[in-house]
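As a warm-up, study this chain.
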Amino acid sequence: MDETLTSVNSWFSVNMGTGITSILLNTLPYNGKWLYWISVVVFALNVLLFATFLLMTILRYTLYPRIFAVMIRHPVQSMFIGTLPMGFATIINMFVFVCVPAWGEWTRNFAWILWILDAVVSVVTAFTLPALLYGSTHRSLNQQTDTDAFSTSQDDAHENDGIIRDNSRVVATYC
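Now compare it with the structure written out below.
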């Protein structure tokens, strides 16, 4: 139980890094078959990491509900909430790159649903987190850190992920 109590949202930044690694390996212009399979393995690892971190996060706030309020008021840890939707966006992209061509049309619609869910979480996080953090405390400009950008930067990631292509066909478009 101590691992659940001390787990933090910043672990989703590991998920973001693993996800972008799988995307880069998959979309290299000189992609060989062996590189494709390495990207699939890294993608599977990314899904496993995301599921583990999400389960730990759910358990943490279910078993210790008072920790959520403490975390929201923390000037650094609260900013890592934005890494959850950004890490999930990397999974959705690789799902489109790998699973849609392999499994067919139903996966295209499933990816669209996942993207909408991720976009909703991203927008809710981007609007509520700064309001909760800056509304409850009086922070001056010199007290801000680089991690303050995490709460709103996932919306930029979703703008770029809004058009996901599969063999030159638009899968999802956000304007």
